[in-house]
């Protein structure tokens, strides 16, 4: 795509963004605000602590572990060990959908399990209460698995959730109980929680069920959490193509699937940030290669399917996939042809967690729209610059805090699915195995890349660029819309979705068309605009 020349000078924008900060803060933020060059990708400061006082978009380690990775599996009872607030705000807020096969199948997603820690538990310890909670959940539901999530006070008072889990697992006999030390403060963001979750799922779940899985082309879908039904659409496509989905980590998934995941022959990774650890660990222990794919965008979906076919190297599968693409694409094309003239030339900004700021650029490209600025809340340098920078990433004290599992090939189950020669041949064909090129390579020259965007910076960016749409989350939504710019929630999708695959692409085109072409935005005046230039705005509050 052509470089965007009709936009403000990004170097100047960068200066403007940091101008108001104290010198020390400005110096730090400057390293995370980068003018892109896809040819010579500059270094982005990422995965470092947010400066105190700055309003960040980030969440916590507990959110990444409990909410993101473990939350979407429907038949695990996820007990939060902590004060009730940590559960209330984590309860069903991510729109991860699930579809039990029968009405009798376990589905605990609508429930909210908490030990409801009180002051007494903080002073005298909460392990007794935790064990009681595990027993109560078991008696009520008889789940296959119970997972325990530590909130901040648990780490502070030293409750041993692992010992309590072990004890209860032994006592109950037929329930797999395991704990996570995912206290909110464990890392600089929810990214730490992803890593902790990957370690726990790998240690306590994957490999427990060796029943061979059926099917000729068996894969796991890693890093797809079925927000707004995304996984349902991918499942539909796989089924049509004759691809067997052994397990999904973890949208629309079950305990049995994850425990059996090591019987698949390929891992495809959607969200690299949250689950790449699993891909690497499964490769080392079981010999299953992983491949980065993207099912966000119709073209990207077709490309990803072709990559899968190439990996399996089966002519029948290749032909079937071409048939499916040929069947699905005309429906997509009919819609995009109608919408494209209305969206072409418009601009977007994307600031979401760790993957979508990259993936959704494909859908905006399909709409003829340019992403002028994008960034992640909590991703690492490899998600920006590509995995080839992995060896040069400095491991700081915060990262050291998170356990790196020592993984070895399994003496019985290690079975390299491809020989070295086969892998080399695939590489030769342009198939990147265990690789990810990151977001910046795909973005235009002189677009702006901002890591851990602050609230102040987001307002400034909008003021300067006046984008046609801003993509972020609920915390940003109404502030941005009051500035007269529509905000699409890319975490929860507002009330929409699915946005993956072919049907998802159509949904997205229609939703974005409705948003960027709605005349209502021109009628909105921000409070300061209404007050007139220079008029001071005051907060109003009630006093007694
Ligand atoms: Fe991966 Fe996600 Fe994302 Fe993420 Fe998230 Fe999410 Fe996200 Mo919200 S796992 S990194 S921690 S794609 S919850 S489904 S939307 S910030 S960009």
Can you walk through the features of this model?
The protein is about 45% helix and about 10% strand. With about 550 residues, the protein is α/β, with parallel strands linked by helices. The strands form 3 sheets. The protein has a 6-stranded mixed beta sheet, with helices on both faces. A 4-stranded parallel beta sheet has the order 3-2-4-5, with helices on both faces. Strands 7-6-8-9 form a 4-stranded parallel beta sheet, sandwiched between helices. Helix 4 links the parallel strand 2 (about 75-80) and strand 3. Helix 3 packs across helix 9 (about 190-205) and helix 9 runs parallel beside helix 12 (about 270-285). The protein is globular and about 70 Å long.
Summarize the structure in short.
The chain is α/β, with parallel strands linked by helices. It has helices spanning 10-19, 23-30, 61-70, 84-88, 119-124, 127-141, 152-157, 161-172, 190-204, 230-241, 255-259, 272-286, 298-312, 315-343, 356-366, 381-385, 397-400, 420-428, 455-465, 474-482, 501-516, 520-523, 527-530, and strands at 33-35, 76-81, 113-114, 145-150, 176-180, 218-224, 244-250, 266-269, 290-292, 347-352, 370-376, 448-450, 469-472, 487-489. It is built from 23 helices and 14 strands.
Mean pLDDT: 95
Shape: globular
Q: Detail the poorly predicted runs.
A: 1-5
Count of alpha and pi helical runs:
23
Helical proportion, percent range: 40-55%
The helix/strand class is alpha/beta
In terms of DSSP E residues, the strand content is 5-15%
What ligands does this structure carry? FE-MO-S cluster
In which order are the strands of the major sheet placed? 1-12-11-10-13-14
Largest sheet: 6 strands, mixed
Report the strand count: 14
N- and C-termini, Cα separation: 60 Å
Compute the CA-based radius of gyration: 24 Å
């Amino acid at each position: 795509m052509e470089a965007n020349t009709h936009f403000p000078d990004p170097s100047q924008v960068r200066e403007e963004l940091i101008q108001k900060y104290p010198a020390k803060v400005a110096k730090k933020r400057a390293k995370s605000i980068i003018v892109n060059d896809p040819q010579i990708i500059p270094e982005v400061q990422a995965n470092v602590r947010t400066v105190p006082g700055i309003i960040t978009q980030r969440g916590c380690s507990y959110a990444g572990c409990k909410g993101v990775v473990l939350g979407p599996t429907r038949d695990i009872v996820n007990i939060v060990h902590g004060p009730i607030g940590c559960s209330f705000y984590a309860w069903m807020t991510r729109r991860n959908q699930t579809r039990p096969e029968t009405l009798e199948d376990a589905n605990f997603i609508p429930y909210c399990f908490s030990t409801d820690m009180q002051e007494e538990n903080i002073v005298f310890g909460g392990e007794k209460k935790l064990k009681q909670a595990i027993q109560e959940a078991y008696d009520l539901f008889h789940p296959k698995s119970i997972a325990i999530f530590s909130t901040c006070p648990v780490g502070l008072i030293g409750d041993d959730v692992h010992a309590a889990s072990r004890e209860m697992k032994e006592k109950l006999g037929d329930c797999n109980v395991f704990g996570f030390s995912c206290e909110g403060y464990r890392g600089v963001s929810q990214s730490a929680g992803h890593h902790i979750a990957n370690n726990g799922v790998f240690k306590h779940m994957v490999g427990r069920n060796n029943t061979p899985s059926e099917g000729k082309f068996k894969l796991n879908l890693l890093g797809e959490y079925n927000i707004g039904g995304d996984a349902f659409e991918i499942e539909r496509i796989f089924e049509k193509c004759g691809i067997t989905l052994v397990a999904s980590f973890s949208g629309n998934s079950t305990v049995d699937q994850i425990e059996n995941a090591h019987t698949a022959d390929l891992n495809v990774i959607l969200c690299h940030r949250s689950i790449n650890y699993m891909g690497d660990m499964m490769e080392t222990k079981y010999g299953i290669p992983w491949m980065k794919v993207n099912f966000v965008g119709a073209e990207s979906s077709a490309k990803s399917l072709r990559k899968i076919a190439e990996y399996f190297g089966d002519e029948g599968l290749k032909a079937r996939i071409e048939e499916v693409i040929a069947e699905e694409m005309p429906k997509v094309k009919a819609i995009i042809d109608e919408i494209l003239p209305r969206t072409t030339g418009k601009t977007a900004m994307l600031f979401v967690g760790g993957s979508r700021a990259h993936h959704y650029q494909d859908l905006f490209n399909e709409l003829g729209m340019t992403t002028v600025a994008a960034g992640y809340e909590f991703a690492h340098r490899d998600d920006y610059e590509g995995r080839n920078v992995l060896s040069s990433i400095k491991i700081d004290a915060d990262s050291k805090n998170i356990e790196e599992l020592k993984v070895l090939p399994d003496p019985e189950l290690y079975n390299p699915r491809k020989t070295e020669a086969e892998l080399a041949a695939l590489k030769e064909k342009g198939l990147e195995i265990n690789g990810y090129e990151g977001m910046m390579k795909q973005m235009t020259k002189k677009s702006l890349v901002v890591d851990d965007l602050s609230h102040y910076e987001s307002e400034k960016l909008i003021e300067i660029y006046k984008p046609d749409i801003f993509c972020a989350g609920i915390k940003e939504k109404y502030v941005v819309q009051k500035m007269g710019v529509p905000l699409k929630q890319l975490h929860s999708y507002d009330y929409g979705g699915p946005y993956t695959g072919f049907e998802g692409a159509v949904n997205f085109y229609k939703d974005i068309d409705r948003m960027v072409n709605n005349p209502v935005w021109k009628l909105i005046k921000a409070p300061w605009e209404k007050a007139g230039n220079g008029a001071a705005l005051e907060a109003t509050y009630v006093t007694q």
